[in-house]
Amino acid sequence: MATPSLPPQTTKAWTFSHGGPPRTGLTLNPSHPLPPFPPTQDNPEEHIHVSVSHTALNPGELVFMTTMPMLVRSPAARAATVPGYDFVGTVVDVHAPARFKKGDEVVGFITFDHIRTTGVGGMQGRVVIPAKYAVKIPAGRTRREAAGLLLTGCTALKQVEEAGVAAGMRVLVVGAAGGIGAAATQVVVDYTEYPDLAGELTRRYGDKPFDVVIDAFGSQALFSRCAGFLKEDGVYEASGVHFDRYAAWPLLVSGFTLVWNALRPKSPWLGGTGRTWKAVSMMDPGLEFMERVVALFGEGELKVVTDSEWGFDEVLEAYDVLLSGRAKGKIIIRVDGE
């Protein structure tokens, strides 16, 4: 009688154990330890063991690597953290099966808090995670098409819904070349093309202002002058406040500015812009919201725009592209399991 094969206990992975940019912090480990599978008996939650085929880079990973204090992470994450919020792959094993079975192709979004507390991200050949972080890829769609879908798709959909976008509205998307903006594009102006973008938008659209601005770049200068091209009852919906360097002080200034924007009086007489400002943070969209985004993807209403695709051993070069701020879509990494 054949002895059943044991699940692998290690996998290839990119990891970091101290703060810093990717080229000084990330290391390729060919035998990174995996969490035990099945999980301990006191954890009845459904877990899945996935062979990862692709992952995608996100700016939030750079913030996590370079500016988040190591003290906010669990001991396991401080020892070695695997970055990567987005992943796609094939389920190779299931614990407490409910939603998945072996062989299912899935797209996943590992949340910030899960990575912070466990050190488990998607930049590895295999991943063991709670099943609530994954959704089955719809029939007729491939893993490659789904790579990079969930973080940007969830953020874009949340921005569109929070801003109250409806049919017939005029919508301006700032930073539409990136992953989030590409998922929410209707009217596009390249923010890098004009030294005075606010002035250019006012000149072009001052007599026919927009109902909504979705700012995937997070330009504080543009928001400060948005009254010139955004209707008085319009909404300026940002994905945060942009900062030029991945360092503690710029991140702190960005955070204070975000709070000030939220508390800032709307009235120009009190220092406001005369327009409503909102911001979205996509730390954990929840399973139901992820399922909505995947359904839109399955129906062909949402697709992932790709800037470039890199091999697993080219991750550092891929992060160089992300750091440049000039990626025109998602940067995809081919992991190809183990």
TrEMBL record:
Compositional bias segments (type: Pro residues): 32-41
Domain of life of the organism encoding this protein: Eukaryota
MF annotations from Gene Ontology: oxidoreductase activity
Gene Ontology cellular-component terms listed: mitochondrion
Domain Enoyl reductase (ER), residue spans: 25-333
Annotated Pfam families: ADH_N, ADH_zinc_N_2
InterPro entries noted in UniProt: ADH-like_N, ER, GroES-like_sf, NAD(P)-bd_dom_sf, YIM1/Zinc_Alcohol_DH_Fams
Sequence segments annotated as region (Disordered): 1-44
Protein name (database record): Chaperonin 10-like protein
